[in-house]
Amino acid sequence: MNRFISILQFLTRIPIRIETGFDEEFHKSIVYFPLVGFVIGLITYVFGWLSLAIFDPFVSAIVIT
After folding, report:
1. Rounded-to-integer distance, Cα 6 and Cα 14, Å
2. Spacing of C-alpha 9 from chain mean position
3. Residue 23 Ramachandran class (φ > 0 left, ψ -120 to 50 alpha, else beta)
4. CA distances for 8 relative to 12, 14, 19, angstroms
5. 3-class state of residue 22 by DSSP
6. Is 11 within 8 Å of 36 (Cβ atoms)?
7. What is the mean pLDDT of residues 20-32?
8. pLDDT band for position 2 (cuts 50, 70, 90)
9. What span, in angstroms and rounded, lies between the C-alpha atoms of 33 and 23?
10. How far apart are CA 31 and CA 7, in angstroms?
11. Predicted structure pTM score
12. Is the Cβ–Cβ distance between 3 and 29 less than 8 Å?
């Protein structure tokens, strides 16, 4: 779990206030890349779905982008 959080901090700007420390084997966390992509896609989907429910499609496209 520590490696997943550290790679999530590394690949995104999501503020996670957990100190993961220095990992000598940071390269082993490459297996979490698809999971981080899924988390980013899920967040984008939720924002898009909510903005489409509130705004028209043009404004929603701007919010999603």
Report:
1. 11
2. 9
3. beta
4. 6, 8, 12
5. coil
6. yes
7. 83
8. confident
9. 16
10. 10
11. 0.74
12. yes
Rounded Cα gap, residues 65 and 59, in angstroms: 10
Q: Which residue matches tokens 């520590």?
A: 2
Q: Which tokens is 52 given?
A: 């489409």
Radius of gyration of the chain (CA): 15
Identity at 37, one-letter amino acid code: G
Residue holding tokens 């997943």?
4
pLDDT in tens, 46-60: 999 999 999 999 999
Tokens of 21: 């420390």
Q: Which one-letter DSSP state was computed for residue 24?
A: T
**Nearest of 37, 7, 35, 36 to residue 20 by alpha carbon:** 7
